[in-house]
């Protein structure tokens, strides 16, 4: 509670610095705020995220790997943080620098309830990462049958292939033509 109060105080004091022409001090404050923001998402600290939301912070800010707070919260299994970010307007379709989405991260980590919530977002069910992989391919690879059915229900192309020739059906049967590697936020 004290930490949240101190953060809110620092955020309100920093807002004028952030609006002005960037100075070394403003850039330092901005970097610290970004670090607190991403830490709050990784830890699922909804109270801290609420402070950022209340201050009008850009919820789609990405770190050096392209991870947004929503991607981090989903990957780390923080349902309440995911819900809060979505309700505040975070972009569920945002992709990291490898093209992966929050939905792909949730499927990869087995965060099925979060993945089901992210399926409600208005994103293409065939959104692809840089390797041409879709959320349906992740669901098939990790045997997430309920999610695969839900993606099919949203119109996902279950015949799609990635850049290596992997298909949803092949992955579901354990046929992987190349090693998969997911980034770890």
Number of helices: 10
Summarize the helix and strand pattern as letters.
HHHHHHHHHH
**What does the oligomeric state look like here?**
single chain
Structural class: mainly alpha
> How does CATH name the architecture of the domain at 91-185?
Alpha Horseshoe
DSSP summary, beta strand count: 0
Please give the share of residues in helix: 40-55%
Rg of Cα set: 18 Å
| First and last CA, distance | 26 Å
CATH superfamily of the domain at 91-185: Ankyrin repeat-containing domain
CATH class membership of the domain at 91-185: Mainly Alpha
Principal-axes geometry comes out as elongated
Largest sheet: none
Average pLDDT score: 88
Task: Predict the CATH topology of the domain at 91-185.
Answer: Serine Threonine Protein Phosphatase 5, Tetratricopeptide repeat
Low-confidence parts: none
Strand content range: under 5%
Describe the structure.
The chain starts with a helix and ends in a 13-residue tail after the last helix. The protein has a domain at 91-185: Serine Threonine Protein Phosphatase 5, Tetratricopeptide repeat, CATH 1.25.40. The mean pLDDT is 88. It is 54% helix and 0% strand. The chain has 185 residues and is mainly α. The chain has helices at residues 2-19, 24-43, 46-54, 69-75, 79-87, 102-109, 112-119, 135-141, 145-153, 168-172.
